[in-house]
Every structure is written in C-alpha cells, then in structure tokens.
Fold this protein.
Amino acid sequence: MKRRFLMRNVFVTLFVLSVLTACASTTPTPVASIPVTPSLPAPEPDTAAPALTPSVESPASPAPADDYFSQMGITLPVPTCSGLTQSQTEGPYYKADTPERNSLLEEGIQGTRLILVGYVLDQSCQPLPGAWLDFWQADANGEYDQAGYRLRGHQFTDPQGRYYLETILPGLYASRPIEHIHVKVRPEGGEEVTSQLYFSGQPTEGLTVTTEDRGDYLLGYFNFVVQR
C-alpha cells in the first residue's frame, strides 16, 4: 500500500514537470504590431560652404570702377560734328599691343597733368560704344619710350561712346617742336583712322584740343568723328 502511494506521487510529479516543460517551450502568440513611422535620421553636420546671402549693403549692380566721369565730376557737352576727323602721319614711334588702360600716369612721370575726354562719333554724330582708341606720346622732356610702354595705352569707349584719358602735356623735341598726342581710332566694324591732337599754344585746324584749367590739372575736350 505504501509502495503504491509512493509510485503515484512519482507519476504525479513527473506529469507536472512535463506540463511545465511543455509550457516553457511553447511559442507565444505574437502580439499584433502597431505601424510606427520610422524617425528620420539626425542630419549630419553640413561640411559644404554655406550659401551666400546677398548683402543689403552691396548694390546689386555696382557702378563700374572706371566711371571716371562721375569720380571727377566731368560732364561732356552735347557733341557737335563738323566733318570727319583728319588723318595724319603715324610717325616713327608707334608700338602695337599697348596695355589697355585709361591712365598713362606712372610712378616717376613728371609734367602737367592732363585729362582728355570726349566722344567717338559716326558721320551722323551718333556716339559709338566699343570704339578702340590707342594713344602714344612723348614725355615732358620730348622723349618717347621705345623700350617699354610708358605713356602708351589703348582703351574702348563706354556704352555712351565716351573715352577718358589721364596723361600729361607732351613735351617738345628738336625735330618737331610742337605739343601733340598721337592716336589711332577704330570703331567696331569700321575703318581705322590715325591722327594727332594739338593744343591752343600751337593750334591746328580741326585737331586742336579745347582745354580748361581746373587747378591741379588741365581738362581737355576732343570728339573724334569716324566712318562706321
């Protein structure tokens, strides 16, 4: 009787253990998942250069740096035309491929400062933008620079057909004792004209610069009239 009781307890114990083991190994019923919007990854540090925001202090269309007329307070008179500009000899001192510049003044140059301004016009007296002008001249001692480009330079007329040259009054030299500045003018798509400009002390009809004394410099006016 006692033995039968013990055996029954053993069977009960084994049954309970088997049930517990089965429960532990049973796969749990999955819980219904709620859709979750994936979070965006944190932005990486921007190593690219930041976009530049236009400064309110800077003009959208800055005035051109070579607007000498505004800087010097120069207003050109209404142009008048009286025939084409006369051609004159080139002379022996011309050099091609001069630097593009409006001012021929350099360190060490001495003489009376001259600002020469005017228009390049066609035969109908209309301004010619983009016209090419090439100037060369002697220094205050009447000497030409043959080694470099001292007192030599070319430029182009602005959108209003104006030119501006900053230089000095040329000196006299023995073989030709008259103040003059050499120039070549060529409108876009037009013919090139070679000529010379003179001053009131020794005028030449049709080629004399009109000057006015502005204290620290002379202001000269001359309009070129060429065939387009």
The radius of gyration is 45 Å.
